[in-house]
Amino acid sequence: RNDIIVRPYRTKEENKMAEKKNIREEAAAAAENIRLEDREEIFIDRAAANEEPNLFVSVNGYNCLLPKGKTSKVPLAVYNEIMRSRRAEEKQDETINELKDAAAQPK
């Protein structure tokens, strides 16, 4: 007798595997969209002697290794992320300076 077992659902492991596959496919599609975007030129400041000579940037699975001290053309998403990072560094520097000034004031 040939009994056929029909499972109308997936096991937890099958669901996890399908979810991982979907995530990989979505990441690949996002990276491809970034790859096709318009490009912007950006200058990456020169590295100090003890720093890495390149800047690594990753946005939605799209990776860039940009040489420091040179101008590079990058996708808009990468450009925006680098600029966001620069603004955050500037804000941090301002906050540090304000705290140092406040600490130096006599009480």
Short description:
By secondary structure, this protein is of the alpha+beta class.
Describe the protein's architecture and organization.
The chain has two helices and four strands; from the N terminus they run αββββα. It has 107 residues and is an alpha+beta fold. It has helices spanning 12-36, 76-104, and strands at residues 39-43, 54-59, 62-67, 71-75. Strand 2 (54-59) and strand 3 form a beta hairpin. The strands form two sheets. A two-stranded antiparallel sheet has the order 1-4. Strands 2-3 form a two-stranded antiparallel sheet. It starts with 11 loop residues before the first helix and ends with a helix.
How large is the share of residues in beta strands?
15-25%
Count of individual helical segments: 2
Terminal residue distance: 93 Å
Tell me the helix content.
40-55%
Number of strands: 4
Strands of the biggest beta sheet: in what spatial order?
Answer: 1-4
Task: Report the uncertain regions.
Answer: none
General form: elongated
The topology string of helices and strands comes to HEEEEH
* Helix vs. strand class: alpha+beta
Largest sheet composition: 2 strands, antiparallel
Mean pLDDT: 86
Radius of gyration: 24 Å
